[in-house]
Amino acid sequence: MNIELIINSIYESTAEFLPNLVFSILIFLFFWMSGVFSQFLIIRIADKRGLNKQLLLLIGRIAKIGLIVFGLITSLGTFGINVSALVAGLGLTGFALGFALKDVVSNLIAGSIILLHRPFKINDKISIVGHEGKVIKIDLRYTTIESEDKKVLVPNSILFTKEIIIMN
To answer: Cα separation of 96 and 3, whole Å?
Structure first.
């Protein structure tokens, strides 16, 4: 008789547990596939329109990771796990990382804006903060200026906030 009660208890627990588990997995897979598709779509648009591929690769990765994290939190909540502490922890972690990496993030954002608006392009001769030379590379973090005797990596946040002289 005890074995029968145990089997019924296991059956009832499984009947409640299994649909939530399957639904949670389906939600996570949907968001994961949406993230992969959005990254593919952003890169495809960049290729067709001739936009800056490096910048749109970054945007695609951010969209993919954001959708996957959102899907994971949603699926855990659907499964019955209390995610409020997890969301609060992610918020605090994001704040701490943002504060610690503020210079890197400001260079990244400034680089994105420079690549988007193109105030100067490769092979332009510019002068910024006492450095003068030809632009040989524009990256998300630095812009490389080459003069006759040296190469200078100028952080994009400086290019974004200081006066740039473009010489022809």
So the answer is: 53
